[in-house]
Amino acid sequence: MNLTHVDHIAIESKNISDSVKWYSNNFKCKIKHQDETWALLKFDNIQIALVTPGQHPPHFAIIDEEVANLDGKKTHRDGINYVYEKDPDLNVIEKIDKGTS
Predict the structure, then answer these.
(1) pTM of the prediction?
(2) What is the Cα–Cα distance from 1 to 88, expressed in whole angstroms?
(3) For burial by CB atoms within 10 Å, which of 21, 51, 61, 92 has the most?
């Protein structure tokens, strides 16, 4: 049995540039993408997305290859399809298709 793959955790940042500098100075991570509204940092075992408040809810993302077939799916600017769901405690989980992650 294969375990579900967690692709990334998204946390809010008031200043993407400052946050990227802090994470880069304090941890061994690679900057996969950075602009004024979001950044994606790659660690050996997971990625962290830094998003500006209100852009996306804080969440974690799980790869689900069926997302491409779902009604109501949306597409990120990088071409990855996604849907947001909430667990019983109202935590947000993003399901994404494999894309290029």
Answers:
(1) 0.84
(2) 25
(3) 61
